[in-house]
Design goal:
It is built from 2 helices and 6 strands, in the order E-H-E-E-E-E-H-E. The chain is an alpha+beta fold. The protein has one domain: 2-Layer Sandwich (Alpha-Beta Plaits), CATH 3.30.70.1060. The chain has a 4-stranded antiparallel sheet with strand order 2-5-1-6. A two-stranded antiparallel ribbon has the order 3-4. Strand 3 and strand 4 form a beta hairpin. The longest helix is centred in the first third of the chain and has 20 residues. The radius of gyration is 16 Å and the shape is flat.
Length: about 120
Amino acid sequence: MDEYLILMRLDLITKDAQPSPEQMQAYMKMYNDWVGGIAAQNKFLGGKGLATEGKVIRSNNVITDGPYAETKESLAGYIMIKAKDIDEAVSIAKGCPILMGEGNTVEVRKVVSVHHK
């Protein structure tokens, strides 16, 4: 099995796109059920949500505030899974409830090692 990163992008800034507290509770249950299903198959490796603010370091040690959630497609979080191939990883990712939101996207990437132990 290989490792895959599932990156979740959604609109974090448009006021009308933000769920009500009740909707958020329902969405979190769907998300937790989805992750629970992956974990039940022993394919969940972990994941986290991401803050909307941070720092960006560019060449020549230029440090700026950001990235900012200025676009309708902001990186909101990720999970890591195990899958036999990219097709299985995509199949798992297609079940992500974030995709129920208009304009939301999920990106799947195979994790490849560039570091030597």
